[in-house]
Every structure is written in structure tokens, then in C-alpha cells.
Design goal:
The complex is a heterodimer.
Chain A (H helix, E strand, L loop, with lengths): L1 H23 L22 H20 L6 H6 L1 H27 L5 H27 L3 H15 L1 H15 L4 H26 L13
Helix pairs in contact in A: 1-2, 2-4, 4-5, 5-6, 5-8, 6-8, 7-8
Chain B lengths: L4 H23 L6 H22 L17 E6 L12 E9 L2 E11 L4 E5 L8 H19 L1
The chains are: A mainly alpha, B alpha+beta.
Chain lengths: ~220, ~150
């Protein structure tokens, strides 16, 4: 029963990740007047930005959809090759696609330079944590690999937490829309990172129970 | 000398950020007084948007649309030219309700901060005060509810 209860947060996280994947599909209509593009009407005709945007959401969709499955013990135990291949997709979608384009787009962030700095830092950390995750597994350090990849996914998941923080702060606080944009550019990933660091400290996270499994 | 990918990325970031800042500064409008523009916006925020947030509940809103990176809630959009948005001028605009990145039209406004003047208008109606507009909106919502029954 307890094991089942512990799985609830993971199931919720996976469902939210898949929900983001589904809501992002709308951008593949290539219409310039949908969702986030509505707030970027000054940039939708600027080819470098628009190109980066589509490349970024492609990378983001791959990483957010593949990430949760990398944490499932059964998959890692029974299908290590699948874990390896999906891991390569996850890492490539961040290192080659999501993080570099995210970094470029950070300079055009709504909210000006205070938000830009938040997103720049996030993109750099996203790249760094994923790269470290790859480097550690190449050296055979599974425990360290798990830690870095958990950090990496915490940053990937900031795409979800950003979309949860923004409506909460804009509807239930006295903050102006601009303040909401700036604050969420930071807390969307900072709190995620702090949360996983706390989990590491508490050692309650399930992924550390199987240190002997070859990833 | 071997440079790590992170250092290269950091260097490229710094360069791009500097370029972006200089481009943004050169594009800044010289005519619009943004301090005065902000005063007008704050006036509308306090006297219309905040009142609407407390008293006007919109119907027919899909909750899934809030799952977005755009702030939700009431906001103002100026229709008058940017450089005429000053506290001493009459300024036209519209109030919209943002549901994520989607803007839903609510009403038009006309304000003059210096004269403490605010009126609102929906399509097909005359201008009225904020309290009258809120009251008429409530009446309309009640009528819609009765009609739906």
C-alpha cells in the first residue's frame, strides 16, 4: 500500500509531462496566432527566432515525453537497452536541440533582462546537468549518473512547473503580470532543483534503491 | 589549451546578451514617456482591473487554458497612440481577460488620470461608470442564468 502511495507523485508528474506534450502539439499547425505565439507577435515574423522556437519545442517535447520513463525501475531492469536508447534520445534532445535554442530564445524573453537572466541560467544548467549525466555513465558511475539525470529532468520539468506557477501567481496574488513573468522565470526551475536536492538529502527517493542495476 | 563546452557556451551567451542589450537600447522610443504611460496603466489597473478581479466573474472559461506560460487575469490594452498616453490626456483602450495567452475582450474604457475620470462601454451601450458597468454585468449574468434554466 505504501509503495503504491509513493508512486502517486510519479504518476502525477508523468501525466503533467504528457499533458504538456499534448498541449504543445498545437504549435505544429505552424499558425502564428496560437498560445505562446500570441504574446510574441513582435517576433513571429523574425525567422531566426521562429526557427529556434520550433526547434526548441521539438527538443522540449522529446525530452519531456521520454524523461519520465527513464525513472521506471522495471524498464531499467528488464530492458536496459531500451533505457540506453531512450536515454540517448533524451540527452540529444537537450544537448543538441532544446538547451542551445532555449539559450538563444532566453534573450527575447517576456519580462526583459531579469527574466532573460533566469532563462539563460536555466538553459546553461540544463545543458550542464545533462552533459554530466552522460559523462558519469560513460565512466560507469551509476549513482552519480542518476543524480545528474534527476537534476536534468528537474530542469526539463520546469516547462510544466512554469505553466503551473504562472496561473497560480497571476490569479491568486497581487503581483502584476510583469512581476509574475519575471518571478516565474526563476522559481519554475529553481524550486525544482531545490526539491530534488532535498530528496537527495532525505534519501527517500526510490531511484537510489537499485544502485546495482546497469543503466 | 582545451576549453570545456560549458565555458564556450558561457562565452557565446555573454556575447549574444551584449548584442541583444545594445539592439534593444537603440530601438527605444524617444517620444513616449514611459513613466507617464506607466502612471496611466497603474490607474487603470487599480480602478478597473482590480475591481473586476474582485467583482466580475466570467463564465464559459475553459480551465485547461490556464495551463500556460502567460499570466492570466484582467489587463488593459491602450488604443490611443503610445506618445499620447499621459495622465493629463484622455486615453482610450480596452480591458481584456487573459486566459493563459488568449485574450478575451471585456469592454472599452476612456480615462483621464488628472481628472480622476473613468468610463466603460460594452458594444452597443453608452459609456458608464465602473460601478454601473459592474452592476449591469451582474444583471446580465443573472438573466443569462435564468434563460439557461
Amino acid at each position: 500500500m505504501l509503495r503504491l502511495l509513493l508512486k502517486i507523485p510519479f504518476v502525477v508528474m508523468t501525466l503533467l509531462a504528457l499533458m504538456l506534450f499534448a498541449t504543445t502539439m498545437i504549435y505544429w499547425s505552424f499558425r502564428p496566432d496560437v498560445n505562446f505565439l500570441l504574446s510574441k507577435q513582435n517576433l513571429v515574423d523574425y525567422f531566426p527566432w521562429r526557427f529556434a522556437f520550433y526547434v526548441h519545442i521539438a527538443g522540449g517535447m522529446l525530452s519531456i515525453a521520454s524523461g519520465p520513463f527513464q525513472f521506471i525501475n522495471t524498464i531499467r531492469k528488464r530492458f536496459p537497452a531500451f533505457h540506453r536508447h531512450l536515454g540517448k534520445v533524451y540527452a540529444a534532445s537537450i544537448l543538441l536541440i532544446g538547451a542551445p535554442t532555449g539559450l538563444y530564445m532566453a534573450f527575447f524573453a517576456n519580462g526583459g533582462w531579469p527574466a532573460s537572466i533566469g532563462f539563460v541560467l536555466m538553459a546553461l544548467l540544463w545543458f550542464h546537468t545533462t552533459l554530466r549525466g552522460i559523462q558519469t555513465i560513460r565512466k560507469g558511475n551509476i549513482a552519480s549518473h542518476k543524480r545528474w539525470m534527476t537534476r536534468s529532468f528537474a530542469l526539463t520539468f520546469s516547462a510544466v512547473t512554469l505553466r503551473l506557477w504562472v496561473p497560480v501567481l497571476s490569479l491568486y496574488s497581487e503581483l502584476s503580470p510583469l512581476s509574475v513573468v519575471i518571478i516565474t522565470a526563476w522559481i519554475s526551475w529553481l524550486f525544482n532543483l531545490l526539491f530534488v536536492e532535498l530528496l537527495f538529502k532525505l534519501k527517500t527517493i526510490n531511484i537510489y534503491q537499485h544502485e546495482n542495476i546497469t543503466a | 589549451m582545451k576549453t570545456s563546452p560549458l565555458k564556450k557556451l558561457l562565452a557565446a551567451t555573454t556575447l549574444a546578451f551584449t548584442c541583444q542589450l545594445s539592439t534593444a537600447q537603440s530601438k527605444a522610443s524617444e517620444e513616449t514617456n514611459w513613466e507617464e504611460y506607466q502612471k496611466v496603466q497603474d490607474f487603470i489597473e487599480e480602478n478597473v482591473c482590480d475591481v473586476f478581479t474582485a467583482k466580475v466573474k466570467l463564465t464559459g472559461i475553459k480551465s485547461t487554458h490556464y495551463f500556460s506560460r502567460c499570466p492570466s487575469g484582467y489587463n488593459s490594452q491602450m488604443l490611443s497612440k503610445e506618445n499620447t498616453v499621459r495622465p493629463e490626456n484622455y486615453v482610450d483602450g480596452k480591458i481584456v481577460f487573459y486566459q493563459g495567452c488568449n485574450a478575451n475582450y471585456v469592454c472599452h474604457f476612456k480615462v483621464c488620470v488628472a481628472k480622476n475620470y473613468i468610463v466603460l462601454r460594452s458594444p452597443g451601450t453608452n459609456y458608464m461608470t465602473v460601478s454601473d458597468w459592474v452592476a449591469s454585468r451582474k444583471q446580465k449574468t443573472e438573466k443569462d442564468k435564468v434563460a439557461a434554466r
